[in-house]
């Protein structure tokens, strides 16, 4: 029995017979004293008997009278009304977790979404449908509240598994796998908690006290305990010498075979290696200790995965296994590089659920990014702020850049207050400030700032499009005018400028943005606010990835195509009218200043007709083509090349080739429209 467990009979431990101390009798007086004592005892017995008989008679009479007197009194009094039936006690919550913990869904786009009371039933259904449930606890700074949550979750799962006729097992990384025999003895009652504690001398003193209630509950309720940690000798050897320092037998048991993967990690959507993201080490990312730490992590993951797979294959096929381990070993689930990813090769992804306990930081997930877990589970003792990003990390980035919050643009300050500016976005902003021209643009123009924060390659794409536009326009004008090219340079410039303006907007409008200012800050009227709110709820292009707080459906994406077409049609209509008016003004000026240079009267294209045709061309053909280029080719495929393969040059080449093909195809369509509508 553990020291803190109460005895089943608390009074038994306190009872001690009290015997009065008497001096020892001398041998000479022992016989006479014994005779006197016998005579006194006989006299006392006769007196007690004589007094006992009348006492019993009196007591019997009194006991017979009491019920009669009580019944007579009841007859004289009116019968009291029966007490009202006690109100039925309110049905307790099936799980009772409302006051103990809070849940957040980490799989949604944007910030994690709180799971309401009505939706918690679905969470437990999801857990019960799983074969393995991972509880990721804090590693750098262990939190005792994690153990409270672990006990709470295990209690509820045990009750539900009992109702469903399923077995429940608990696997603990805290116990090295070579302590499995000691855990079995503890479960069988052959050793108690004090004996088991002797095998955890490598723990911090308070750690045993935190785990003890969970261990006691499992022992008392028949929940199998499984040690899945790596033996200490193996861990210390790998941390000091690497996997090569292990013996042949140790390497066979605890190190993954060569070529099995999961050694170097892979790059996530945001461009950082998952090893870097999940690593709890604060050492240099390129130092020797970092490499050894990565090897130690791989050994831990492999050891746990092997033990878990063995338990799943040999245990109850319908049973559930709860794994308590460090958060870094289970982050990103089956799509990460930890234990769930190793097991996912032999188990369906939906059969594994990852829960992070009391995570210090909540990340904002964008479309296409891997969710860090299925659920974030907080103890009721933990404060929860809407600020999803760690302010300490924000302060670290600002201190490293030598910047103050007051010097940032207003929208970024507002975003930091609302918790929607991640350290990565802030770092991108400081990186853009290193270039003088870009620094001027992002500080003076909010539109450039929003686009460059969402896509740092925006200026490259704009330069590619403008270069292609100006070059093809000049070549087309030269082919059209031949020897009159320099004489009619004003017409050439007019058409070239119009094409340049139009191409600027074909890149500008469908480009993805990150807007950090709320609508209320714009100070516009109600009608304008309604329009801004409607347009702000749509993506910039049909293929744009979800951003903070946005998860667009198919209707919104289709609407973005229509709205984008209307915008480009408006740009085409206005620019065509401007170019037509400018051409007519130049033609009139030539007739006045140099009549001899004017050829015979040629029919002029109607301005309104030309504007309408050009507007329709931009709103349909150009809009669809640039939606695909901006959203699918550059935003998704190009970012994939940069993030996963670190190939920005290849992404720029892809953008350049796609825009050249688009320009050629667009020119052919435009010429067809001119010939078809004859203007």
Automatic annotation (TrEMBL):
GO cellular component entries: chloroplast membrane
Cellular location(s): Plastid, Chloroplast membrane
Domain of life: Eukaryota
Pfam families: Cofac_haem_bdg, RETICULATA-like
Domain Haem-binding uptake Tiki superfamily ChaN: 123-343
InterPro entries xref list: Cofac_haem-bd_dom, RETICULATA-related
Family label: Belongs to the RETICULATA family.
Protein name listed in UniProt: Haem-binding uptake Tiki superfamily ChaN domain-containing protein
The species this protein was found in: Aegilops tauschii subsp. strangulata
């Amino acid at each position: 029995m553990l020291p803190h467990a109460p005895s089943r009979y608390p009074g038994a431990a306190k009872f001690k017979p009290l015997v009065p101390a008497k001096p020892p009798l001398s041998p000479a007086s022992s016989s006479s004293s014994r005779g006197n004592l016998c005579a006194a005892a006989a006299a006392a017995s006769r007196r007690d008997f004589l007094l006992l008989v009348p006492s019993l008679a009196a007591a019997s009479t009194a006991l017979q009278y009491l019920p009669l007197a009580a019944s007579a009194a009841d007859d004289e009094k009116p019968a009291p009304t029966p007490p009202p039936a006690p109100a039925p006690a309110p049905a307790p919550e099936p799980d009772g977790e409302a006051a103990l913990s809070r849940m957040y869904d980490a799989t949604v786009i944007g910030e994690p979404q709180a799971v309401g009371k009505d939706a918690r039933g679905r969470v437990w259904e999801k857990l019960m449908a799983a074969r393995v449930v991972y509880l990721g606890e804090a590693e750098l700074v262990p939190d005792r509240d994690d153990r409270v949550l672990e006990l709470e979750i295990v209690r509820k799962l045990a009750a539900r598994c009992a109702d469903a006729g399923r077995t429940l097992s608990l696997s603990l990384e805290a116990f090295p796998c070579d302590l499995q025999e000691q855990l079995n003895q503890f479960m069988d009652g052959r050793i108690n908690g004090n004996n088991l504690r002797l095998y955890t001398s490598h723990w911090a003193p308070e750690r045993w006290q935190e785990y003890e209630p969970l261990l006691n509950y499992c022992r008392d309720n028949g929940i199998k305990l499984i040690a899945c940690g790596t033996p200490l000798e193996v861990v210390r050897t790998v941390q000091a010498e690497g996997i090569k320092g292990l013996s042949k037998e140790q390497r066979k048991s605890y190190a993954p075979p060569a070529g099995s993967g999961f050694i170097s990690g892979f790059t996530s959507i945001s461009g950082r290696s998952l090893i870097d993201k999940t690593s709890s080490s604060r050492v240099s990312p390129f130092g020797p200790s970092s490499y050894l730490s990565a090897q130690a992590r791989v050994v831990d993951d492999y050891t746990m995965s092997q033990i878990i797979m063995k338990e799943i294959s040999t245990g109850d096929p319908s049973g559930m296994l709860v794994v308590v381990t460090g958060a870094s070993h289970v982050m990103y689930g089956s799509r990460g590089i930890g234990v769930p990813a190793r097991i996912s090769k032999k188990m369906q992804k939906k059969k594994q659920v990852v829960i992070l306990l009391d995570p210090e930081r909540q990340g904002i997930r964008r479309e296409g990014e891997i969710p860090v877990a299925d659920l974030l589970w907080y103890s009721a003792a933990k404060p929860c702020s809407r600020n999803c990003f760690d302010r300490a990390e924000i302060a670290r980035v600002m201190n490293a850049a030598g910047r103050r919050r007051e010097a940032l643009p207003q929208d970024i300050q507002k975003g930091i207050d609302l918790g929607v500016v991640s350290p990565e976005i802030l770092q991108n902003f400081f990186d853009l400030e290193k270039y003088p021209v870009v620094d001027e643009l992002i500080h003076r123009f909010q539109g450039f700032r929003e686009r460059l924060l969402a896509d740092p390659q925006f200026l490259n794409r704009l330069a590619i499009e403008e270069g292609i536009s100006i070059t093809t326009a000049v070549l087309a004008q030269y082919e059209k005018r031949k020897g009159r090219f320099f004489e009619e340079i004003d017409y050439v410039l007019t058409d070239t400028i119009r094409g340049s303006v139009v191409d600027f907007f074909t890149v500008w409008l469908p480009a993805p943005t990150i807007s950090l200012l709320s609508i209320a800050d714009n100070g516009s009227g109600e009608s304008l606010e309604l329009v801004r709110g409607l347009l702000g709820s749509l993506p910039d292009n049909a293929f744009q990835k979800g951003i903070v707080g946005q998860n667009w459906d198919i209707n919104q994406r289709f609407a973005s195509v229509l709205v984008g077409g209307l915008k480009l049609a408006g740009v085409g209509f206005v620019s065509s009218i401007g170019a037509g008016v400018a051409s007519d003004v130049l033609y009139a000026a030539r007739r006045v200043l140099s009549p001899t240079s004017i050829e015979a009267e040629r029919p002029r294209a109607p301005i309104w007709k030309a504007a309408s045709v050009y507007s329709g061309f931009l709103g349909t053909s150009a809009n669809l083509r640039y939606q695909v280029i901006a959203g699918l080719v550059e935003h998704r495929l190009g970012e994939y090349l940069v993030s996963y393969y670190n190939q920005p040059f290849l992404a720029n080449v892809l953008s350049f080739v796609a825009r050249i093909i688009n320009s050629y195809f667009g020119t052919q369509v435009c010429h067809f429209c001119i010939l078809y509508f004859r203007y």
